[in-house]
Amino acid sequence: MILLSPERRAWLSPLMHLYWRFSRGMTLGVRGCVVDAEGRILLVRHSYTPGWHFPGGGVETGQTVEEALAVELREEAHVAMTGAPVFCGLYLNARTSPRDHVALFRIEAFAQTSPFVPTREILEAAFFPRDALPDGVTRGTRERIAELFEGRPRSPHW
């Protein structure tokens, strides 16, 4: 497994967004709030950007958001949806780019197809109780958790 140093991660993400800015008019991503039977939330930690996030990624040309969600859950955490995901909102992610949007879904019907194994992209994936989240959960992820589970009004911004 190749791990990127923090210095390389620091320039890789902005470089990729610069590429997307000129190659696409708008970027669309998808994230999944996967909730297990005990109410724990699935979070992942990437090799190329700091913090803990909901699993997800970009929606490719020709994909629906649900198809992209299924691919990302499978690739990042070995999760297969066994029921329809519930759409929670579409957010502008202006901190990344003024063109970036994120569709958020809640998933409660799923199966974990195999144990998680770290990859070049995803270093860790685990379920956490909402009252015992790991250090480093990103601001956007924390705000979505508060909206979904604590009754905080939904913001249009990630």
**Spans where pLDDT lies below 50 across 5 or more residues:** none
Radius of gyration over all CA atoms, rounded: 15 Å
N/C terminus separation: 31 Å
Structural class call reads: alpha+beta
Count the strands?
9
Q: Helix fraction?
A: 25-40%
Number of helices: 3
Tell me about this structure.
By secondary structure, this protein is α+β, with helices and mostly antiparallel strands. The chain has a single domain (6-149), classed as Nucleoside Triphosphate Pyrophosphohydrolase. The protein has three helices and nine strands. It has helices spanning 6-23, 65-77, 139-149, and strands at residues 27-34, 41-46, 52-53, 56-58, 79-81, 86-92, 100-107, 110-112, 122-128. The strands form three sheets. A four-stranded mixed β-sheet has the order 4-1-7-6, covered by helices on one side. Strands 3-2-9 form a three-stranded antiparallel β-sheet, with no helix packed on it. β2 and β3 form a beta hairpin. The relative contact order is 0.22. The model has no long low-confidence stretch (mean pLDDT 90).
Q: What can be said about this structure in brief?
A:
The protein is an alpha+beta fold and 158 residues long.
Which features would summarize this protein structure in a list?
27% helix, 30% strand, single chain, four-stranded mixed beta sheet, 158 residues, alpha+beta, three-stranded antiparallel beta sheet, Nucleoside Triphosphate Pyrophosphohydrolase, 3 helices
